[in-house]
Every structure is written in structure tokens, then in C-alpha cells.
Design brief:
The chain is of the alpha+beta class and about 675 residues long. The strands form 4 sheets. Strands 1-8-9-7 form a 4-stranded mixed β-sheet, covered by helices on one side. A 4-stranded mixed β-sheet has the order 3-4-6-5. A two-stranded antiparallel ribbon has the order 2-12. Helix 21 crosses helix 22. About 5% of the residues have low confidence.
Length: about 675
């Protein structure tokens, strides 16, 4: 299972690349001053023609949505995207361009690596001149494959480069022994990301598959590959592979997907696959391995054996080309964008090369950049303020646990133990990774990508069999996101999200509690959602519930699943309540905790005065809706409901609110779509 539960997994559409004329970086060096200023709450966003008890999202954000359509370079546009743009295209851009303007940076320093990676991405003349040459060593290995044994070994080498294959190794904390690292084997290899894309029969999904075939055919032609009918060949193979895989809902079960076996048993489960060669080229040496799905291991190996070797080689070529398409010449780059950004997510235009160069540098050199980012833009005072908020949430959560009528005293005792054990990280790591061994040079973009990927791979395999480093971060400091890691039993808040509209030191408490406090509560609640609740205080996959309490919890969760199943975001496309249940529980819990923490903080104090005509209770919910406001293309919505464990933005706003009596009281709802009968409300935490 994946080890972290992020606040917003799909913050942005997949990164897509384009090419434009090359320019000198010194002429573009700018300042590090911010140009985007976000108010605590902008009342001009409100559409007062909408009844808040009918549609709270469009009441709070209706005018904002009208004024902020999805930009042509995006598939979604909302608070996360605006702040991400500020962090990357203003703050990081200033840092990177200042470095790129300097000469004679010392080799191996972070400044030199950042500067030269940026230059290599921006140097389109060299990229065009090199063409497919940087990939030739890997293509030669694929072309030289003579047997299924060779194919498995080459597939292992390709995985080292981040190239998708049928089987996937990754290293993470052992779910049953969270203090030690282990090797997992997971399903993989689907270009469209999720098996529903290969199974749905609606016209929109069929159109995606048709475009997928055309896309592969065009990419192969652009790359000079001579495979016959590659598009249909790949679609047919991946369709067969998809049928063997667990759905994204089934993957949410941490018990069913934990199958620890001896490495020798893995080889017996799938004798057709060269596991020794596959593991050896990845420097993976283990006695035991944790399998996501035993049946998939067996059946995928049989599928591979039954597939013509030339088809497998075509598949390997495709995965290699697709992995690096964004770093190749303009024609290949643009076609890659056309399918994965335009067809899959509705993004109409590529970002300018400069902006994508900044984002690519951030994606590859994120931690060195993060060190410079927090030095300039993260006040240490924010750490203390957020720490206090976290402790407030912890205290309120404990009170909520004590008040639960559906949970027994025995389970409450264990819940308190887990709650007390929660740890947290704020802003940035206490120690920074050493990137000095990565050889970054100008004019060698793909080689730079490979060098950084090899560094990451080496870093991971060196963890095998060793204790988990609890200080390690899963996100860079500049990331606009937050996460809960059940195996560390920790919540993590990067500096990137600790800015308006999520956290505003100048805002009133109600807005901040509806924003960052609800985010903190969201991450805390992940420790007690349908997945996180299966891990104990030490981060181990262990049942700490009585059978009756677990049954009561799942009864409530299943009611909430059915509630979200009924939300249709587009004709024929409903929210998948079972896929999104963890995030939906976290949103409901986060709101509940934040509201009661705010209420508790005001006890014994004078009633706060209205601001802009709204009470503190109303402003709390305005703060929540402001955090999640957003627009989306239809293609992105279709993609989201099929692949993303997060509900669409409008449903994250309106979905949980009818279940909070406090919302109805704040807005005086006696009817409307946002009003639920007391018996219909779901109250879990």
C-alpha cells in the first residue's frame, strides 16, 4: 500500500512539456518579490443570488468562478493552483533565474546543479539537435532482447529509470513492522493509469482509447520506430493486463494487499518470469518480499509468457518513449502534451517553455530549491503558530472520542493512545539530503534526468533491511499540500501550504480555522479513516478495535459511501464513494474538529463582532469554501472520478456540510439541498 495520504493528490494536471525558442537566461533574471496578494476573504467572490442552503459552493465562490475560468494552460484552477503558481512561477522562478544569471558556479554545489539543470531544459536548440540520440543506449538494449528472460532483465533496468513495467518494486516501511524498511511488489504498466479506462463503454472513455491508439502510432512514427500497428498492439496488451489488476477501490484494503512471502515463493508463484535477473539489475537483494496481489503475480507472468516477444519489445519501447517524451524534440513533446494533457484532462495549451523549465527544475532538484525557498519565504513564527493549532486539534479530537456513543471504552483507550502518539513536521526537514553526487551538466537534459533518477533509486535500495528514517520527508518544502503517513503516525505540513488562503497570519481566527485548521484536522482524521484506522499507535497494521466497534464504524462509513455515490458530476459520471471514502471522512472530520476547536477557543471571551456582515460561525464556513474553490474541465472531471481518491472541489465543499448541524445553524437553513434531517446526517468523529 502507499504510505502517505495527501490532502490533494491531484493538485495539478500531469506535467506536460512544450518547446519554444531558446533565449539567454541572464536577460530573464527577475526579482524574488511576490506579486500575488491574497486577502483573508474576498467578499466579491460571493454570488448573493444563490441561496447558501441550496448550493454553498456557488454562493461563496460563484463570482470567483465567473472571473476565473480554467486557463488554457491548466485542466483545473483553484486555490491550490493559484498558490502553486505563486510558489513556482514567482518565488522559485526568481531563485532559479538569479542562479542562472551567475557564472562560474562551483561544480557539485546545489547552486550549480539547479542552474545547469534549468539551462539544460531551456536549451531547446541542443534538444532538437540531439533528437532521439540520448535514448539510444536503452533502445539498443530493448532491440537486443532475444528471450523472455532477457525482457524481464531489461524491464528491471528500465524501472531504474522510472519507466513503467508490468511489475514494480518499491521500498517502504513494513506495514506489520513499521520501524524497518521492506521491499514491496506492486501491479503496474497501465499507460492510462487505471483499469476503468480499459473497461468503461461510455462514448467519452471509448474516445480516449481511440485517441490513445492514434497517439502511440504518431509517437512511434516521430521517433522513427518501425513497429507495425503499435497503438492497437499496446492497447490490446494493456487491456489484458488491466483485467488482471485490482481496482483502485480494492487497492485501499491494507490487509488484503499485504502478502509477505519468501523471495523463493515469489519465483514459484510466477516461474515464467526471470525474477532473479529483474531484481539483480535493480540491486534488490532480499529474502522476503511483500506482494500486493498474489494472483496478479501469477497471472501477469502467464500473460507475459503468452505474449509474442516482439509485442513485449514494442511495449518496452513505448514505455521508454512515453517516459521521456517531454524531454525530447518539439514534435514528440507536443504530441505527448496533446494526448496526456489535452485528451486526458482537457488542457488546451502548453505553458511557456520558461515556466515549464522552472517546474521541471523544481521536480528534479526540489530539495536544494526548497532549502533556498524556506530561507527567503518561510517565517519561523509560522512554525510556532501551526504547532499550537495542531495541539488544539489533538485536544479537541480527544474530547470528540470521549463523547462518541458508538465506540466502547476499550477502543476509546486505544484511540487515545494513537492520538497521543501522533507526531508532526512543519515547514521543512531538520536535515537536508546531499545531492552533491548527482552529475548535472548543461546541454544534457535526459542524462540529467537519468542521473537524478539513479540517485533516487540508489537512495531507495540502500534502505532495504534498515531502520526507517522517521525524519525523512515525502514532499518538498515548497509543495502546496499536506499529508498523513500511517506508518510513522505523523502529519506533515510543508511551508508551501502555510500561506493564504490556507493560513494567513493577518486573518481573523474564523477564516484561519476554516482554512488551515480544517486542513490539520483533515490530516489528523486520516489516522482514523477507513484505512488509517487499521494502523496502531506505532504505525503497524494491527487491529486495535473490538469487533462491535469496527462494525459500528463501517456502518457509518458505508452510509457516507452511499451518500457520495449519489453525486453525479457529469452525465454518467458519479463520484465513487468507495474510492473517495478516506478523503471524504477526513474532510468531514477536519471540519468538525476545526469548528469545535474554534468554538472552544472563544469560550469565556466576548462574542466576536461581525466582519463584512458575517458572524464568526459563518466566516468559518466561508474560509472552508474559499480553500476549495475551483473550476475544472470536463475531461479533468472524468479523469478525477475514475482515478482520484479525492472528490471534485465542489463536492468537497458542499458534500460534508449538510452533515454538520453547525452549518445549518450558522446559515439558518430550514430547507434546501444543504439541509439534511438529523437522522440522515453521518457523524463519525
Amino acid at each position: 500500500m502507499k504510505s502517505i495520504y495527501a490532502l490533494q493528490l491531484s493538485l495539478l494536471a500531469a506535467i506536460s512539456w512544450t518547446a519554444c525558442n531558446n533565449h539567454t537566461t541572464t536577460e530573464q533574471a527577475g526579482t524574488n518579490q511576490d506579486t500575488l496578494k491574497i486577502p483573508a476573504f474576498d467578499v466579491s467572490s460571493i454570488d448573493s443570488t444563490v441561496n447558501p442552503c441550496d448550493d454553498f459552493d456557488n454562493f461563496v465562490n460563484g463570482n470567483w468562478k465567473k472571473k476565473n475560468p480554467v486557463p488554457s494552460t491548466e485542466s483545473r484552477w483553484g486555490a491550490f493552483n493559484v498558490l502553486d503558481k505563486q510558489n513556482k512561477e514567482i518565488r522559485l522562478k526568481g531563485i532559479i533565474l538569479d542562479l542562472a544569471a551567475k557564472k562560474d558556479l562551483k561544480k557539485g554545489t546545489e547552486e550549480q546543479q539547479i542552474s545547469d539543470f534549468y539551462r539544460s531544459f531551456y536549451d531547446t536548440a541542443t534538444i532538437e539537435k540531439l533528437g532521439m540520440t540520448p535514448l539510444q543506449p536503452y533502445l539498443d538494449k530493448i532491440n537486443a532482447i532475444q528471450s523472455l528472460e532477457d525482457w524481464a532483465k531489461v524491464s528491471g533496468e528500465l524501472q531504474n529509470l522510472g519507466i513503467s513495467t508490468v511489475a514494480t518494486f518499491y521500498i517502504g516501511a513494513d506495514s506489520r513492522n513499521s520501524k524497518m524498511n521492506a521491499v514491496y511488489e506492486n501491479q503496474g504498466g497501465l499507460s492510462l493509469g487505471e483499469r476503468s479506462y480499459y473497461e468503461r463503454t461510455d462514448s467519452a472513455t471509448k474516445a480516449v482509447r481511440d485517441e490513445f491508439v492514434k497517439h502511440i502510432d504518431k509517437q512511434f512514427s516521430q521517433a522513427g520506430f518501425k513497429d507495425a500497428n503499435p497503438g492497437q498492439t499496446i492497447l490490446d496488451f494493456e487491456t489484458k493486463l488491466a483485467k488482471l489488476q485490482l481496482t483502485n477501490v480494492q487497492l485501499r484494503d491494507p490487509v488484503a494487499t499485504y502478502n509477505k512471502v519468501a523471495f523463493s515463493e515469489l519465483k514459484k508463484l510466477a516461474p515464467e518470469f526471470n525474477w532473479d535477473g529483474y531484481a539483480e539489475v535493480q540491486q534488490v537483494k532480499v529474502d522476503t518480499i511483500i506482494l500486493e496481489n498474489k494472483a496478479y503475480v501469477t497471472n501477469s507472468a502467464k500473460l507475459v509468457k503468452a505474449t509474442p516477444l516482439e509485442t513485449l519489445k514494442t511495449y518496452a519501447r513505448w514505455q521508454t518513449l512515453s517516459r521521456f517524451a517531454g524531454y525530447l524534440p518539439k514534435a514528440i513533446d507536443q504530441e505527448n502534451f496533446h494526448f496526456f494533457a489535452t485528451v486526458m484532462r482537457g488542457t488546451k495549451a502548453q505553458k511557456p517553455r520558461l515556466e515549464r523549465a522552472i517546474r521541471a527544475t523544481d521536480g528534479t532538484m526540489g530539495y536544494p530549491l526548497g532549502k533556498l525557498f524556506v530561507k527567503q519565504y518561510f517565517p519561523e513564527s509560522s512554525k510556532q503558530k501551526v504547532s499550537e493549532m495542531i495541539e488544539n486539534v489533538r485536544a479537541v479530537y480527544g474530547e470528540r472520542v470521549d463523547s462518541l456513543k458508538w465506540m466502547s471504552a476499550a477502543t476509546k483507550e486505544m484511540a487515545h493512545k494513537k492520538l497521543k502518539s501522533f507526531t508532526y513536521k512543519i515547514g521543512y526537514p531538520d536535515k537536508w539530503k546531499d545531492y552533491s553526487s548527482i552529475d548535472v551538466k548543461p546541454g544534457t537534459l535526459i542524462e540529467n534526468i537519468v542521473a537524478a533518477t539513479n540517485y533516487k533509486h540508489k537512495e531507495e535500495v540502500e534502505k532495504i533491511g534498515k531502520p526507517v528514517d522517521k525524519s525523512e520527508w515525502e514532499m518538498t518544502p515548497q509543495t502546496v499540500n499536506a499529508y498523513y503517513n500511517p506508518l510513522n503516525n505523523e502529519v506533515v505540513f510543508p511551508a508551501g501550504i502555510l500561506q493564504p488562503p490556507f493560513f494567513n497570519a493577518d486573518a481573523d481566527d474564523a477564516i484561519n480555522y476554516g482554512g488551515i485548521m480544517a486542513v490539520i484536522g483533515h490530516e489528523f482524521t486520516h489516522g482514523f479513516d477507513d484505512q488509517g484506522s487499521q494502523f496502531d499507535a506505532e504505525g503497524n497494521l494491527t487491529n486495535w478495535w473490538t469487533p462491535e466497534d469496527r462494525k459500528n464504524f463501517m456502518t457509518l462509513a458505508n452510509r457516507y459511501i452511499r451518500y457520495f455515490n449519489g453525486i453525479e458530476v457529469l452525465p454518467g459520471f458519479h463520484i465513487n464513494g468507495a474510492l473517495t471514502i478516506g478523503e471524504n471522512i477526513a474532510d468531514l472530520g477536519g471540519l468538525t474538529l476545526a469548528y469545535h476547536a474554534l468554538e472552544k477557543s472563544l469560550k469565556g471571551k466576548p462574542e466576536p463582532a461581525k466582519i463584512d456582515g458575517y458572524t464568526w460561525q459563518q466566516r468559518f464556513f466561508l474560509g472552508w469554501a474559499q480553500v476549495w474553490h475551483g473550476n475544472s474541465t470536463e475531461a479533468a472531471l472524468r479523469n478525477q472520478v475514475q482515478t482520484d481518491p479525492h472528490s471534485p472541489a465542489s463536492s468537497r465543499i458542499d458534500g460534508p456540510l449538510p452533515h454538520l448541524k453547525e452549518f445549518n445553524d450558522a446559515w439558518g437553513c430550514t430547507g434546501g439541498k444543504m439541509k439534511l434531517a438529523d437522522t440522515a446526517r453521518v457523524v463519525i468523529w
